[in-house]
């Protein structure tokens, strides 16, 4: 019985992150690189050569050209966020499935237009949050949603910081308002917000309040910020912190009534082939000495044959294959959690822009 052919993915843009995802497409067993596009043929050719693209991959000197390529099933779009709506909508209208870098849009209104185009044209959309596809993430959820081990969630804190160099802070698209105006919030903050939502089983918070002390560059782009969130019914709370101005840190700490979960490298694992996390349940202090823990944290390691970005591409290609070969409908889970993440990003920004007022997400 013949197996389905690999999903043919085109890369729209030569951003640095596209190097990592190009490798992931190479590694994914059910995907292949079919094409690369840039605004110049020379740049596209150089990118293809330097990243080991197969000889069969087409090289396009414009974004319009790759949209017309009938041998491309799907597009990975790592363009600046300000260009996402334009090119993702055009890709959907051409029947191309979309793997879209995060943040997915400048705001949720833009993303809603992208999703509407995808729904009308029956194409799959997924954002590029790689760590969500690591097999460790499923293990985290097993513990978090086990009422006997973790209990009821009370608080989660997540942070992603990196001490960016002078060149990044002055020249990166992340530091320019006309390209990626959400800055650290849309980039590093996206990961912390997605982690917070995952721990809360993707239930949106009721309120979001940014912390005073947001740092912006001279162009007004956010380089560092934090925020708190509340879920009013059962008094859950969360805090996030993201920054381009602090030492590399990628943390999740989730605290329940019975257990605690900690991850120290959730965005990019310390090692590509395995990732760890710690849990403890019913921890206490020995009595009467009070000198040691009872039930101290235990470390768990999850191995993977594919790096997390290849797992992401493989899952995206699987969903596209189901649509292309079996007439399945697009999986709406992925755009739904993209939208929720974008909603919280928008709320943090709104709070910052309004002198750190509390923002309600009820009804959004």
UniProtKB/TrEMBL annotation:
Coiled-coil parts of chain? none
The identity of this protein, by name, is Gfo/Idh/MocA-like oxidoreductase N-terminal domain-containing protein
Which organism does this sequence originate in? Eutrema salsugineum (Saltwater cress)
Q: Which InterPro entries match?
A: Gfo/Idh/MocA-like_OxRdtase_N (IPR000683), NAD(P)-bd_dom_sf (IPR036291)
Any GO molecular function: nucleotide binding
Q: Where is the Gfo/Idh/MocA-like oxidoreductase N-terminal domain?
A: 7-126
Pfam families linked to this entry: GFO_IDH_MocA
Query: Which branch of life, at top level?
Result: Eukaryota
């Amino acid at each position: 019985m013949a197996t389905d052919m690999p999903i043919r993915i085109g890369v729209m843009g030569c951003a640095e992150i596209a190097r990592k995802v190009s490798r992931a497409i190479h590694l994914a067993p059910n995907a292949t690189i079919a094409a690369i596009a840039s605004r110049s043929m020379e740049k596209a050719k150089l990118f293809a050569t330097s990243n080991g693209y197969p000889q069969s991959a087409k090289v396009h000197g414009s974004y319009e050209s790759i949209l017309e390529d009938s041998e491309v099933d799907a597009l990975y779009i790592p363009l600046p966020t300000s260009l996402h709506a334009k090119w993702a909508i055009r890709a959907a209208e051409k029947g191309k499935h979309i793997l879209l870098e995060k943040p997915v849009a400048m705001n949720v209104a833009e993303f809603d237009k992208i999703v509407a185009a995808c729904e009308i044209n029956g194409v799959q959309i997924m954002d590029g949050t790689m760590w969500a596809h690591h097999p460790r993430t499923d293990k985290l959820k097993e513990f978090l949603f086990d009422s006997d081990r973790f209990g009821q969630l009370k608080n989660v804190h997540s942070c992603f910081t990196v001490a960016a160099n002078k060149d990044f802070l002055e020249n990166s698209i992340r530091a320019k308002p006309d390209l990626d105006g959400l800055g650290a919030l849309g980039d590093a903050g996206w990961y912390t917000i997605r982690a917070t939502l995952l721990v809360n089983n993707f239930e949106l918070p009721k309120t979001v309040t940014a912390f005073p002390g947001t740092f912006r560059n001279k162009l007004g782009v956010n380089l560092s910020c934090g925020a708190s969130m509340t879920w009013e019914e059962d008094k859950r709370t969360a805090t996030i912190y993201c920054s381009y101005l602090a030492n590399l840190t990628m943390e999740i700490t989730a605290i329940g009534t019975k257990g605690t979960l900690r991850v120290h490298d959730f965005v990019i694992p310390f090692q590509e082939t395995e990732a760890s996390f710690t849990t403890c349940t019913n921890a206490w202090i020995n009595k009467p000495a009070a000198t040691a823990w009872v039930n101290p944290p235990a470390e768990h390691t999850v191995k993977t044959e594919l790096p997390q970005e290849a797992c992401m591409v493989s899952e995206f290609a699987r969903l596209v294959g189901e649509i292309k070969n079996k007439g399945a409908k697009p999986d709406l889970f992925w755009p739904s959690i993209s939208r929720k993440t974008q909603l919280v990003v928008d709320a943090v920004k709104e709070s910052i822009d309004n002198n750190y007022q509390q923002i309600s997400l009820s009804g959004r």
